[in-house]
Amino acid sequence: MVEAVRYHPPMAVEELDALERDTDIRHELVDGIAYAMVGASADHGAIVSGIVAALVPRVSRPCQVFSESVRLRRLTDIRDDYFYPDVMVACDPTDRASHHREHPVVLVEVLSPSTATVDRGRKREIYTAIPSLEHYLIVAQTHMAIEQHDRANDWQPVHLGADDSINLPALSLTIPVRDFYVQVDL
Predict the structure, then answer these.
(1) Domains of the chain by start residue, with CATH
(2) How far is CA 136 from the centre of its chain?
(3) How far is CA 3 from CA 22, 45, 115, 181, in A?
(4) For residues 183 and 68, what is the distance between their CA atoms, to the nearest angstrom?
(5) What is this structure's pTM?
(6) 144/42 Cα distance (integer angstroms)
(7) Which of 35, 77, 111, 140 is 20 to 30 A off residue 47, Cα-Cα?
(8) In this structure, are residues 104 and 112 in contact, taking their beta carbons and an 8 Å threshold?
(9) Cα–Cα nearest to 26, from 99, 95, 97
(10) Contacts of 40 (CB under 8 A, 6+ apart)
């Protein structure tokens, strides 16, 4: 996200859906403000693909792995927020809406220069308030490094490097950091 595209906040999800249909541009809806999603770099896309490739064969049903196309819906008393996490794992068999999920277990964002502050700030704050979320991973794009935030650790960041492994107890998985980066030369 680079800059806010303001449409008379707070915007309703129906307005967001119409905006996306009319413009063919994806938007995240945060605190009633629509943010246009900018194009990602090739390395960003390759890392997202690497994360999905590392997770899919290891994740058991009813869990599902999504990348960038399925929205995360966060319900609040005031309004709904919608995000397009780079990668999302949702395991609740009752959480099966056709275009979004509400109860993720794992969320992953791959850092871009334009999103780093939001991914570590407002998104982290919003994501970690989701009751079902157990793990939030912030993945570097320029070098092999991951900030792992876990509910069990009070969301305090654990910094992982190329020789470390990501421990995801909610999925009963341990994945080498390198597995997320198999498609990029760093």
Answers:
(1) 40-181 (3.90.1570.10)
(2) 8
(3) 19, 21, 10, 28
(4) 18
(5) 0.87
(6) 16
(7) 35
(8) no
(9) 99
(10) 48, 110, 112
**Partners of 100 in the β-ladder:** 71
41 contacts: CB under 8 Å, gap ≥ 6: 112, 141
Q: What are phi and psi of 148, to 5 degrees?
A: -105, 125
Per-residue pLDDT tens listing for the chain (186 residues): 444 444 456 767 777 777 767 777 777 777 777 777 776 789 999 999 999 999 999 999 999 999 988 999 987 767 778 899 999 999 999 999 988 999 999 999 998 877 777 778 888 999 999 999 999 999 999 999 999 999 999 999 999 999 999 999 999 999 999 999 999 998
Cα 78 from Cα 105, distance rounded (Å): 23
Tokens of 66: 């999504």
Q: Amino acid identity of 183?
A: Q
Place of tokens 């900018």: 38
CA-CA distance, 72 to 64, in Å (whole number)?
13
**Phi, psi dihedrals of residue 71, rounded to the nearest 5°:** -75, 150
Distances 33 to 10, 27, 96 between C-alpha atoms, Å: 6, 9, 26
